Amino acid sequence: MTTVGLLHPGAMGASVGAAAAGNGHRVLWVARGRSGATAERANRGGLKPCDSIATMSAEADIILSVCPPHAAEEVARDVSAAGFRGIFVEGNAIAPPRTRRIQASMPDCRFVDGGIIGGPAWTAGAGTRFYLSGSHAREVAALFEGSPLEARVISTEAGAASALKMVFAAYTKGTTALLTAILAVAEAEGVRGDLETQWGREFTDRTHRQVTGNTAKAWRFAGEMEEIAATFAGAGLPDGFHLAAAEVFSRLAEFKDTPAEDLGPVLKVLLTRD
To answer: CATH fold of 3-157, please?
Structure first.
């Protein structure tokens, strides 16, 4: 049995921890200062509370960081400051150069880069994959063998898993932002009905579901789009599209945890100017 630390059990992280716990591993999370909703997710996943990152760092063999992109460095600093010397998995949606900077800031840890593609992995039917890269990636993948979360090692070099996550989300989430903005412009110009007729009913209905269904997660997608923009810039390509996508998602932050039921409120928020 391996002892795993999880920072922090959000909507995605809790399911990752549950996949490891379901394989018989002991999975710890820091309960202090966390919400009741977080505790509920942790309990659902069979995670064990501990009192601090220091306790987790002393007991865990592997620590997984699965948090919103903006918090990635803070989590890494806290773990490093606690004296952790095991395997640290940077599993957040961040640009490869940022992943490598975090790796460089943690010389006492064995570093693994991770990128999660798909939704929360409570069941195998979710089809979620945890891509891993780094010289200790196979040790991390072994935690999830046979679990609802499929772990795949793609490289011995840190940064590869982050890059795959970035280019995949550049399309899937980037096109959601583009379609959302297109509908808002068409609404503002009074031609949305004509556009949707041109699109056809099937594509229009699918687009409405895609846009409204992602509104509750828009606050988180904004930071991810900024990371994708940095990934493009790092490769010498224009970053403007995904910076604009970040702005679209930022305007929809008020839908956090409560997705819009239909398109009307979404377009109203996008088109309202301060």
So the answer is: Rossmann fold (3.40.50)
